[in-house]
Predict the 3D structure of the following.
Amino acid sequence: MKFTPSFLGCFNPSTPKFIEETDYGYVKEEEEVGVTNVPHPNFRVFSYNELRVATQGFKNKIGEGGFGTVYKGRLIGDRFIAVKVVSVEVESMRGEREFISEIAALSDIKHDNLVTLKGCCVDGAQRLLVYDYMENNSLAQTFLGTEQKRARFSWELRKGVALGVARGLWYLHEQVNPHIIHRDIKASNILVDADFTPKLADFGLAKLFTDNVSYISTRVAGTLGYLSPEYAYSGHLTRKSDVYSFGVLLLEIVSGRQVVEYHFQHGEQFLVDKAWELYNAKSLLMMVDSQLNGDFPEEEAIRFLRVGLLCVQEIARLRPAMSAALKMLKGEMSTEDVDISQPGLVSDLMEVKIRRRVSSNFTSSPASSSNSSFQAR
Ligand SMILES: Nc1ncnc2c1ncn2[C@@H]1O[C@H](COP(=O)(O)OP(=O)(O)OP(=O)(O)O)[C@@H](O)[C@H]1O
Ligand SMILES: [Mg+2]
C-alpha cells in the first residue's frame, strides 16, 4: 500500500492530561506530544521492499525487545540504519493513519542525545520503524555485564554518558512542547554512537499502541527495577516516573552494577536498596565501580550518587525535575542541603499485578489516582 504526503500531519488524537506535583520540579503536566499540522521534513514512509533490500532480507539481527526485533541495514547511498519490526497483535496497534502521523511527529524531535527516527513502514498488519544505526549498541550491551566491558568505561566516559542521558531527558521533559514522558528509561534504551555519545531510544513509542500494550503489565518483568512505584501500581504517569528510572540508571552507570543482581547467599539484591544501605552507613563511595581502580574524583562521584538517590525517592514530588538533576550533576546546584529520603522500590511482579487490579477498581483513569498513599515496599 502506498501513502501520499497528504496523508500526514492531518490527524490529531486526543491525549490524556496528567497533573504533576510541583514542589521541587516546577513543571506542570500538559498534553503529551500529538501531531501538528506542519510538514515533517525529516520523515519518510518506506516501502516494505525497500527495507527488505536494505536489510538483505532481515538477515542481520541486532537485538530483540518487548515490541519486536531490530535488524541492521543500509539504504542505498546512505548510512546504516536499524529497522525495528514491531511484533504486536494487530488489535493492540494504532491504525495505519494514526501510526504514521505519530511517527511523523516523533521524527521532528531532534537532539544530540536522542536517536533519530527516520521513518516507518506499514505493510498490511506489519509495522516497521527506521532509525539511525548506533555503532556501539546499547549501554546494556556495551557497558553492563562483564568486568572487561566496564573497565572500558573510564570515569570521564561515564560522566559524559550520564550527562548526555540527563540532557536528552531534560529536552523531552522541558524543552519539547508539549512535553514527552519517555516511560521506558533503562540501559537497553540508551544507545551509544561511534563517539560514545549516548542517545535515548524508543521515546514516544508507547503512544503507538493501545493502552493494554503500552501499559507496563505485559512487559514489566525486564524493567522491574526501573519502575517508579506510582506508575507500576496505579499507572499514575508523570515526568517524575522517568526521573525515577533515570536515577536507577545513574546508579548503574556509577556502580557498574545491574538494577537487580542475584547473589548465591543473599538472593536478589536491588541496586537502590544497596545504595540506600551504603548511604545510611555513610559509605556511599563503596558504590563506585571497583573496575575504575580508584581512578575517579571522589567528590564528583558522591555527587552523582546523591543525585541518583534523590531521583529514586519514593515520594514522586521530592524527586528533582530533570533541569534540577542536570544542574546538580554539573555541580551548579548543591545536593548537600537537600535531604534524601527512602527510595521507592518495586520488587515483586505479583504485587504489581494485584495492586493494579485493586487500583483499577477504585480509579476510573490513571490521571485521577493519587500517589500519596503508596507503600512501595
Ligand atoms: N538504532 C539502533 N542502533 C543500534 N542498535 C539498536 C538500535 N535500536 C535498538 N538496538 C539494539 O536492539 C536491541 C533491541 O531493541 P528493542 O528496543 O527492540 O528492545 P529493548 O530496548 O531491549 O527493550 P524495549 O522493547 O523495552 O525497548 C537493543 O537492546 C539494542 O541493543
Ligand atoms: Mg528499546
Summary: The chain has two domains: 5-132, 139-361.
